[in-house]
Specification:
The chain is an alpha/beta fold. It contains 12 helices and 18 strands. The strands form 3 sheets. An 8-stranded parallel beta sheet has the order 8-7-6-5-4-3-2-9. The chain has a 6-stranded antiparallel β-barrel with strand order 10-13-16-15-14-17. Helix 1 crosses helix 3 and helix 11 crosses helix 12. Bound molecules: pyridoxal-5'-phosphate. The site of pyridoxal-5'-phosphate (PLP) has 11 residues, from loops.
Length: 376
């Protein structure tokens, strides 16, 4: 038997969360399409599991070519957006062969496109009639990827020329918001984007999860939600439950030991927690080698048999310890929810640990066995 820890993934929750996004768009009177973002192995949920749950998405967005090929092998025929574009000339073969839609965000990528077209066209265009579209990325203030407003036009014209030469099917436009989840919002970046793209006939994509929930003025032609598809909140002042989202990932384990402590007994490495009175401590089969954050402090909620029990002592590699005062009847073998359905939300655990749900979901270790919850 394996250790009693598992990561339970619920595809119906992903499908449901996508429907929440679509309802939002619909309510705002938008006909925007949806890129379902499945980078980082679908935020740790597994591409193979997420893909069937996202059949109603209009496209999938990611950045790893292996993940893109996996999607094609799994039968995904709709568009695939490569969020970081391509890195070397060989990648362009994959883009043309598998009909991927890359982002183009720097001059080096345009040079690669030009070189590739010199090598492979026009001969290739006859064998591959379906040309890829690209998204030209504009840096409207995040200062990560993209052309600055002052260099955008030159890049755009170069790409339009490649289109006229029959090497691309379309040149679309995108940007990415740095603060859609904060007080600052999207207005400054949105203004820059709208101003420099005014009058251009191209499809546009701007909104991440936070903008999709808060700023209908960013919907344009395609939105790009990620985190909300998996049932976590992009905001620190609104929970996923308040946003009507359902958790798609549950990290579950069991109590594997119970210790009865005297007042003054210390728990775990460094003896950081000292029992203030006689108490029972539950030992859970889950540690930082499973992806639980080592920095989770005392008091981080853990659900034991449905009761919230606070974490005490340091997180070990393979175990963590909780105060069982709230779960008087608990026994070895009882079910423990670290986060997800029936326990604290992944956002709550992240908040305690000084991180974000994105990181926790992506960091669940491969050694944790995955299980499917096929409930509706
Ligand atoms: C990750 C990513 C998204 C999705 O972000 P969420 O906050 O998870 O919704 C959208 N666009 C780009 C460019 C991204 O890298």
């Amino acid at each position: 038997m394996p250790r009693p820890i598992s990561l339970i993934i619920k595809p119906s929750a992903i499908a449901y969360n996508l429907s929440v996004v679509k309802t939002r768009l619909h309510q705002a009177g938008s006909k925007s399409f949806v890129w379902g973002v499945i980078k980082a192995n679908a935020y740790g949920h597994g591409i193979e599991v997420a893909l069937p749950a996202l059949q109603q998405a209009d496209g999938l967005a990611m950045l790893d070519f292996n993940e893109a090929l996996t999607c094609r092998q799994l039968g995904w025929k709709k568009p695939i957006l490569m969020l970081e574009g391509f890195f070397q000339i060989q990648d362009l073969t994959l883009i043309y062969d598998h009909h991927l839609t890359p982002v183009v965000h720097n001059d080096e990528q345009i040079d690669l496109l030009v070189n590739y077209s010199r090598l492979h066209f026009p001969t290739r265009s006859t064998t591959s009639p379906v040309l890829p579209a690209i998204y030209l990325k504009i840096n409207t203030g995040m200062n990560r990827l993209g052309f600055k407003p002052e260099t955008f036009r030159v890049a755009y014209d170069k790409l339009l020329k490649l289109k006229e030469q029959g090497l691309l099917s379309a040149v679309h436009l995108m940007t990415h918001f740095a603060q859609a989840d904060t007080q600052l919002g999207v207005q400054a970046q949105l203004d820059v984007f709208n101003q420099i793209t005014m009058g251009l006939s191209a499809e546009r994509s701007l909104a991440n999860s936070a903008a999709t929930l808060r700023y209908p003025e960013t919907y344009a032609d395609w939105v790009r939600p990620g985190i909300i598809l998996y049932g976590a909140s992009p905001f620190n002042n609104q929970t996923a439950a308040q946003l009507q989202l359902k958790p798609a990932m549950t990290l579950r384990s069991e109590l594997i030991a119970i210790q009865s402590l005297h007042r003054g007994d210390a728990v775990g490495y460094g003896g950081e927690y000292i029992a203030p009175q006689p108490m029972r401590i539950g030992v859970v089969a889950c540690g930082y080698a499973d992806g639980y954050p080592r920095h989770a402090p005392q008091g981080t909620p853990v659900s034991v048999g449905g009761m919230i029990c606070p974490l005490v002592g340091r997180i070990s590699m393979d175990m963590l310890t909780v105060d069982l005062s709230n779960a008087k009847q608990s026994q070895v073998g009882n079910s423990v929810i670290l986060w997800g359905e029936g326990g604290p939300s992944v956002d709550e655990v992240a908040l305690y640990s000084g991180t974000i749900a994105y990181e926790l979901m992506c960091a669940v270790s491969p050694r944790v066995p995955r299980q499917l919850d096929s409930a509706a």
